[in-house]
Model the fold of this input.
Amino acid sequence: MIKIIFKDGQGLGNQLWIYASAKSIAEKLNFKLYVQDFQKFKGKSFLELDSCEKEYISNKDQSNLGIPFETFKERLYYDHQLNYIVSSFDEKVLEIKDNTILDGLFQSEKYFFGELGKLKRYIKLNSIVKKNNLIHHDVCIINLRGGEYKRHKDFLLPMNYWNNAIKNFKEKYNINKFKVVTDDYYYAKALFPNFEVIHGNIGNCYATIYNCSNIIVSNSTFSYFPCKTGIKKRVIAPMHWARYNNKFDRWISPCNIYKDWLWQDINSNLRTYDDCKINAELTNKYYKTEYTVLINKKYIPSNKFLKIIPKSIKKRIKKFLSIIFPKHFG
Done:
């Protein structure tokens, strides 16, 4: 049996990645998949996950299962120059024993072992939600990520990325209608005041991306599964992913490079997966050669001042500032 645990603080994209990768690994090794704390799954109201054992007990109660589990920690690195936890395909996962907990990000398509089509079996969208969020084929969706990204400025994509991608869709594909799907309404209206903004309901946002034929994505895991399991679409994504146009020319992370997408560089040029995978492979080799595997996340620098402010107060402050200064706070 392979076990994964849905945790507080995980986004839907992160949960789907660890589920889909664990499901694929379990099938590869002929193990069962067990999901602990399934009640924390953020897509349970509109997504159906393929057969797995679902348990609602908490982490504190896992000892009551009566099964001793070992933990496999995916290989991670911390890049101090780019301030990012880096991951890629960890081939050692194929050596795990029965009754193992998977701990990590698991965001590489290599965990699907060349069978991307099985994702449509793993993750299915509720038919009613799908039907209620149809998008015409001549519309392009802009999947804008704001919110907490504004606390980590290196994540935020510059306006020229969005403008260049919009221009590419207009000139190359004759697409002239655009809508925004976002987790941050005020930020979206500040950047795109003339576009309709779809927000607020995570199921509707997911279904809109699932149903669209054209999309400009941010460097967020949220868009991956509706893109891969939904209708066929043109996708423009940011070159280098989480550190767009970084001066080191590193693909951050090497796992986040996906087939069939077009990757836009700083000069608005569109590159194919085959064009970019060499850079991702070189980045991966660089980390394996030059970096020490991350053992404990406590050694990553953090803002200690923010940690002493109660969550309820931080939430109210952030909401107020996001309305007054939507481009800077979320």
DSSP finds ten helices and 16 strands in the chain. The longest strand covers residues 139-144. The first helix runs from residue 12 to 29.
